[in-house]
């Protein structure tokens, strides 16, 4: 296979540090040849890592996509509400596209992007990376082999983690649903997609409950300042004290979260940014509007029922699943890499231990990039093309509408215009 070339639009954490890492690890297979990023320091640091000349460094995606096509594909890693225009421009220009999830918080834009990929016969692969994880790939294989008989029920939980929720959904870029997207779409479209994939059926009905309960002004401790570094007297008892997390918590460094605070992650730069930057705010004095706990119940057309729980109030950032079948039961822990199968007939327990890397969604990120590069290089389709992703995105939006309206959504009716 020839080397696949790409442009990058948005050199933040996912684009600049995760997906593009595949080019550094596999230079014979993949190369990033141009970048568009409004932050000059971030743009120049990325360009230096990938040896991108000055003339191929752009401040805006419009500048880059107005040029003649210069690569095989485009990685679109901008913020949630900023995907539609660069994705459609790239497809029209002739690029295959890798789009960070969610595609868009706008129902019409999601459907139009899927239709445009089909119209121009381009690959539009959405970063539903969990389909590429060893964990969920193995579960899919077990289900297809009918080792637990006919599937009847799914119970799935996403433990966001108190520290991750505070970083991304209270202080960070995804804190405000009006500026980005609802929590069930931004964080949990992964999970809607996985349940859709495992159930192997279309969604029939969906309902949801959830609220922003804890991370609000009324729960702020007495005399808590707006910024952690403004002499907070609760610092030793607060699990969300920003300087302690960004300088001491292993996940801040291991998962690169500190680079959201500053591109120069030494203590001097971190503390300076936390004084008045968004990541130094008290979690009770922010402008966050996304829920901090939510449940979703789903009925699929094949009569499989699914229950999903998202919560901020856990120690680990983890996904756990139980699947109940007519001949057995499956229990899985993604981060631990364990799958237990209980056979109703023999009464035996089969414990499967997978190799799951600690980073990158348990190895999913690089598996997805490997598959995307292969798809572009060989002209093949993969697990997460746009037609599949449109359905799971609409499930997430239907769940949010059900939560707000406190009703049950008929999914066929909700998504009917998609096929018009």
Automatic annotation (TrEMBL):
Domain Gfo/Idh/MocA-like oxidoreductase C-terminal: 140-390
Pfam families to which the protein is assigned, alphabetical: GFO_IDH_MocA (PF01408), GFO_IDH_MocA_C (PF02894)
Domain Gfo/Idh/MocA-like oxidoreductase N-terminal: 8-127
InterPro entries listed in its UniProt record: Gfo/Idh/MocA-like_OxRdtase_C, Gfo/Idh/MocA-like_OxRdtase_N, Gfo/Idh/MocA_Oxidoreductases, NAD(P)-bd_dom_sf
Recorded family membership: Belongs to the Gfo/Idh/MocA family.
Protein name: Gfo/Idh/MocA family oxidoreductase
